[in-house]
Structure formats: C-alpha cells, structure tokens
Amino acid sequence: MRMLFVANPVLSHVLPLVPLAWAGRTTGNDVLFATAGVTEHVRQAGLPVADLLPGFAVEEWEEQLHRRYPDVQGLGALRAHGMKFAALNDTLARPLAELAEAWRPDLVVYSEITPIGAVAAARRGVPSVRHDIEICDTSSMLGHLADVLAGAFGHDLPPQARAPERIVTAVPPALATGKPRDLAMRHMPYSGGFVLPCRQAPSPRPRLVVTGGTSTQDDRIGRLGRILRAAGQVDADVVLAMPPEAAKAYEPLPPNVEAAGWVPLPRLLPGASALVHHGGAGTVMSAVAAGVPQLVLPDELPRHLNAQAVTRQGAAITARPEDVDAALLRRLVEDPALRAGAERLAAECAALPPPAEVAGTLAIWAQAGRGG
C-alpha cells in the first residue's frame, strides 16, 4: 500500500507525523512524505520526501502574506490563524495535486491544519486520515480555515475535508478535552536524531531544561531572559536548548546555565527535573511522554489552551514571564505533587497503542474501503 503523508511547511507541523510515517514503512507499506521548506529534516529522519515548493521559506512567505493582507493581524487569533493556514494550504494545493496524480497513493494522511491533503485524496478517489497535532479542541479554527479555503481561495472542498473519515489523536484522554477519540495513538516524541555519549557523569543537582521550541521568533524566546536570570539563583544545572545565534542574546549567561544549542528534547528530557517552554503542542507532549513537570509561558491562544490542559492535570504551572522568579523555579523542580502529576500523564500516554499498531489499522481500513 502507498501512504502519502502531507504537512504544512512548518517544522512543528511536520515532526509529529514522522513516527506514524516510520510505522507505515516498518509495517510493509510504501511511504512518501510531502511538504516544503523543511524537507531536509524529513530526509534526515530516513523518510522519502517530495519537495512541493523548492526554495520555499515560510518566513519570507509570511512577509508576503502580510503585505497582501495587511489587516490579517487585526482579525483576532481565530480568524488570523484561519487566513494564514488557508493561504498556506492554497499555496500547496496545485503541486500536491500533481504529486498525488503522479505517485497514485492508496491512502493520504495529513496533518490537522493541512486539509488540502483531504482534497488531494478525494480527487484521487482514495481515503484520507487526519493526524491531529494540537492538544486543544481546534474545531472552530478548522471550520474557519475550511470556510476561508473555500470562500476566499475558491477550493471545492469535499465532505471529508470538513468531516474527516478517520482521525488519529496522539494525546492522552486526560488532556484531550473536546478532541475526537477515533484512533488514539501513543505520542512518540521526535525532533531530530542525536548521538548519546557512552558515559555521562550524573549530577547531584536538579536539571532544568529551558527551550523556545522549534522557532527562533523574538516574541517567543526574548521573554526567556528573565527566566534565565532567575535560574541563576537556583541550585540546579540549567540547559538552554535553542540555536546558538538565539542564545547569544542572553550572554553573559549565569554560571549554572549551559547553552546547548538546538538539541532534540528526547535527548534532554530523560532524567530532567523540569522543562520551561512556550506551550507549543509538540513541546508539551514531549514533556508529557517523559513524565517531566512543566512551566508553561504561553504567548498566543492555542498555547494558552495547551497550558491550561496540562496544568489542570497537576503536571504543570502556567505563568506570565514577568511572574517567574527563583522561588517559582525552585517549586517547579522540587514539588512532589507536580512530579506525581507528570508521571500519571506519562503512564496514560504509554498505555495508548503504538504507531505501528495504528499504521496497521489504517492499512487494513484503507484496503477494505477499496474493495479488499
């Protein structure tokens, strides 16, 4: 069976699909990933990838979008996201349709915010599956995205673009309030490969990881300066995980803070005492899978909802950057209740079916739908 995986050209949308794509290959299927701009990350994951838009850079594309629609930021969070991702889907539509016609997939798996994947599948007459990448209920935003894609960009959306045939949700039930519960899947964090040293000297002190996620936007990581200053007053080893050029903005760093570069979280979180971050779904779920308490500093609506979800489960603290001080960081790394909440969520995550099982279920379902 040929499985085509489709994601927007945004790294935080691409990486969550990698484990299921791996599983598709290891269960005997022919897999192809389709995206743009971040194709090298997919190739490094060992997956075949089609570059839908050679030379594409999402930052340049966003600048063009704002020039074309100067009022987009004044639309409010819901409508602004809908316009942005509808325009991104429209950009992918033609090359994706051409790829689907040439490669002839039997099944299309598309990321939550890439419904143009369902459109390509419908044109080929094959089933499609939505792979959710967000923690919060995105039904309103997705509905608006579909309305804009149909209205402003003129796409004829098939029913499955608005009401997916199947939905994969890699979020523990305790966090998935309002999310569809069709095909639950264990979250397997992936943010790149790494080399693990053969021997690592253990430290008697707590280890606190600080990250801005996959983005280097100033409005997201600039707020971490206060956190790093507060961390300098805590008896802990602090690891700053972000690109070196971004970390330079905070120099000189406190003596207990190490700038580690952009290191995959699965490399850093085992054995960590806590994680401080912006609230992106992939980062939240990496900490959930590792059973690590979190301090979440959300900067926009979806991340506020993510922060609320994990905080309600007693596994995180949500705060504003200006409210973070050494006392709060000490509580983060020392509070046994936070550690217990994080471990409960990790156990719930581990109990879900692994990607290989879900890939097998999808292959059987797709084959049955095509007459066996």
From TrEMBL:
<dbReference type="InterPro" id="IPR050426">
    <property type="entry name" value="Glycosyltransferase_28"/>
</dbReference>
<keyword id="KW-0328">Glycosyltransferase</keyword>
<dbReference type="Pfam" id="PF06722">
    <property type="entry name" value="EryCIII-like_C"/>
</dbReference>
<feature type="domain" description="Erythromycin biosynthesis protein CIII-like N-terminal">
    <location>
        <begin position="22"/>
        <end position="213"/>
    </location>
</feature>
<comment type="similarity">
    <text>Belongs to the glycosyltransferase 28 family.</text>
</comment>
<dbReference type="InterPro" id="IPR002213">
    <property type="entry name" value="UDP_glucos_trans"/>
</dbReference>
<dbReference type="Pfam" id="PF21036">
    <property type="entry name" value="EryCIII-like_N"/>
</dbReference>
<dbReference type="GO" id="GO:0016758">
    <property type="term" value="F:hexosyltransferase activity"/>
</dbReference>
<keyword id="KW-0808">Transferase</keyword>
<protein>
    <submittedName>
        <fullName>UDP:flavonoid glycosyltransferase YjiC (YdhE family)</fullName>
    </submittedName>
</protein>
<dbReference type="GO" id="GO:0008194">
    <property type="term" value="F:UDP-glycosyltransferase activity"/>
</dbReference>
<dbReference type="GO" id="GO:0017000">
    <property type="term" value="P:antibiotic biosynthetic process"/>
</dbReference>
<feature type="domain" description="Erythromycin biosynthesis protein CIII-like C-terminal">
    <location>
        <begin position="226"/>
        <end position="362"/>
    </location>
</feature>
<dbReference type="InterPro" id="IPR048284">
    <property type="entry name" value="EryCIII-like_N"/>
</dbReference>
<dbReference type="InterPro" id="IPR010610">
    <property type="entry name" value="EryCIII-like_C"/>
</dbReference>
